Amino acid sequence: MPKGKKPPFGRRGFLKGAAAGAAALVSGPEAGSARPSVQDHDHDHEHQAVPSDLTLRVKALESLLVEKGLVDRSALDAVVDTYEHKVGPHIGARIVAHAWVDPEYKKRLLADADSAIGELGFGGQQGESMRVVENSSTVHNVVVCTLCSCYPWAVLGLPPVWYKSTAYRARSVIDPRGVLREFGLEFGDDVQVRVWDSTADLRYLVLPERPANTDHMSENELAGMVTRNSMIGTARVKS
Amino acid sequence: MNGVHDVGGMQDMGPVHHEQNEPVFHARWEGRVYAMNRALGAWRKWNIDTSRWVKELFPPADYFRMSYYERWYYGLLKLLTDSKLVTNAEIESGKAAKGSPKMTAPLKAEQVVRTYTQARFEGRNRAGAPARFKVGQRVRARNMHPTGHTRLPRYARGRVGTIESDQGVFALPDTNATFLGENPQHVYSVRFEARELWGEQARPHDTVYIDLWDSYLEPL
């Protein structure tokens, strides 16, 4: 902790309130007194700037947790490595490409995504209750989580900042066409836009349209064309 | 709670900024915060609903000011102290309390890849109450304003939709978040016409699908 900086949890408020227990927080108007407060925080957070001492605070917390035996440092390294290098949109892309080349697989994927994704050897947390929704010339699907940041980690990795942004979460349900236009997608009235708000534990993957003139391409080549955004619904796959 | 997190339908949020070739984490501390959240979850002292709920409790101005992983950091502090895994004094000093036992972390490095890429979980297959609604049935999302955690977004309350599919049985976040029981219920994808939600300004054929628990709905 840098000298002269008060941690935001040092005074009454956040952590003191925490001791009240989560159950008390649902009980009525008194809940306000148990609310976390970071009002002591003396940094300018406008534009989501990161306070420079957060790096130090997080380091201090990690050291404490390791000292107490609550986490293994090597496990933390493995989690970071998993999402930086092993799990990401390339998994979703393989699922999409396989559905494009194998109509029977596509049927299974749309009917029972969990089993069909499992067939290809994929799965895992935040991807165990999957649903795949298909784009066509008359239907365009787009996925959002208005309440937090729900996202199919197991097949797309961790969500990009824009997906978690208040702007995207707020506007996608009321003005999906306006949001899609900012991503360069425009649809006429002949296309129905379907927004999927991931409010529960279902996780959505958009099956984008296969581009024209790709009949000669292998499944691997096709997978290479499928972008993350096309599987969220904010892009088309371009040939 | 009619909280700051429930932003669906707000209009003054500006454009959606999307970054090309975005890294998974923008700073090392973000990855560490994410990993600590996941690794500590293995203690099973809280559940995913609890971890969402604590992030809904930030004062509204702080919620908007904080970056995404900053919310995860402060939410984690609350989870750690609520669950008594860590004390306030330990967080302030950065040192374990004298005489506190050394524990054994439940998540090992060698389990991580398998857990996060292979493991199957209970998910939608909980046993629970029978389904009150059928696919194709017209329903109204209840006009309710609980002061606790809920996953019925404000913009859907009181609106009429159609059950599009039955997604199976899941724990009810409203009670699960605060350890008042799983109360397993069917979750349905409910199709709302955009005009039912937003009026004439919406396109006539556009739709919004929202996944809603059985008790969030009432028959018409």
Tertiary shape of chain B: globular
Overall SS class of chain B: alpha+beta
Output the CATH topology of the largest domain in chain B. Answer: Cyclin A, domain 1
How much is the radius of gyration of chain A in Å?
22 Å
Poorly predicted regions of chain B: none
Biggest interface goes to:
A-B, 115 and 116 residues
Output the number of helix runs of chain B.
8
Number of strands of chain A: 4
* Topology-level CATH name of the largest domain in chain A: Nitrile Hydratase, Chain A
Which CATH architecture of the largest domain in chain B is right? Orthogonal Bundle
Structural class of chain A: mainly alpha
* CATH domain class of the largest domain in chain A: Alpha Beta
Write a concise synopsis of the structure shown.
The complex is a heterodimer of chains A (239) and B (220). Chain A is mainly alpha-helical and 239 residues long.
Task: Give an account of the 3D structure.
The complex is a heterodimer of chains A (239) and B (220). The relative contact order of chain A is 0.12. Chain A has helices at residues 14-18, 54-67, 73-86, 89-101, 103-111, 113-119, 153-156, 161-164, 166-174, 176-182, 219-225, 228-232; strands spanning 130-134, 139-144, 192-197, 203-207. Helices cover 41% and strands 9% of the residues of chain A. The longest helix of chain A is centred in the N-terminal third of the chain and has 14 residues, at 54-67. Chain A has 239 residues and is mainly alpha-helical. In chain A, helix 4 (89-101) crosses helix 11. Chain A folds into two domains: 1-57, no CATH class; 85-232, Nitrile hydratase alpha /Thiocyanate hydrolase gamma (Nitrile Hydratase, Chain A, Alpha-Beta Complex), CATH 3.90.330. The model of chain A is unreliable at 1-48 (pLDDT under 50). In chain A, strands 1-4 form a two-stranded parallel ribbon. In chain A, strands 2-3 form a two-stranded parallel ribbon. Chain A has twelve helices and four strands, in the order H-H-H-H-H-H-E-E-H-H-H-H-E-E-H-H. With 220 residues, chain B is of the alpha+beta class. Chain B folds into two domains: 28-117, Orthogonal Bundle (Cyclin A, domain 1); 138-219, SH3 type barrels. Helices cover 30% and strands 15% of the residues of chain B. Chain B has a five-stranded antiparallel β-sheet. In chain B, helix 2 packs across helix 4. Chain B starts with 27 loop residues before the first helix and ends with a strand. The mean pLDDT of chain B is 94. At the A-B interface, helix 1, helix 2, helix 3, helix 8 and helix 9 of A face helix 1, helix 2, helix 3, helix 4 and helix 5 of B.
